[in-house]
Write a structure and sequence with these properties.
This protein has helices at residues 8-29, 36-53, 68-91. The radius of gyration is 16 Å and the shape is elongated. Helix 2 packs antiparallel against helix 3 (68-91). The N and C termini lie far apart (47 Å). With 96 residues, the chain is an all-alpha fold.
């Protein structure tokens, strides 16, 4: 059986999407729980996804663009991150 090789970007992006889903669900499942820790975890995974998706800076090529596949993945994570934050913010009773 051959093991498939996955990039760190796809793993971190999947974790970011899972954290966004938990951030959406948290105010409904745990209505009295503060959503601050969920926001922090979601933000950390989002920042890690952005770091891995962005091309590394080089003085020879300072204005590099993202690869199309990485751009699509980052765009999906960005939309999920934004929507999850707004949904959780408007439905949570306490933030901190």
């Amino acid at each position: 059986m051959l093991a498939t090789q996955r990039s760190p970007l796809s793993l971190v992006a999947a974790l970011s999407l899972a954290a966004s889903f938990l951030l959406i669900v948290a105010p409904f499942v745990l209505p009295n729980a503060p959503i601050g820790p969920f926001i922090l975890v979601n933000w950390l995974f989002f920042i890690a996804t952005g770091y891995l998706a962005m091309p590394k800076f080089s003085w020879r090529r300072p204005f590099q663009k993202m690869e199309p596949a990485e751009f699509k993945l980052f765009r999906l994570v960005l939309i999920a991150f934004t929507l999850a934050g707004w949904i959780a913010f408007f439905n949570a009773k306490t933030i901190i």
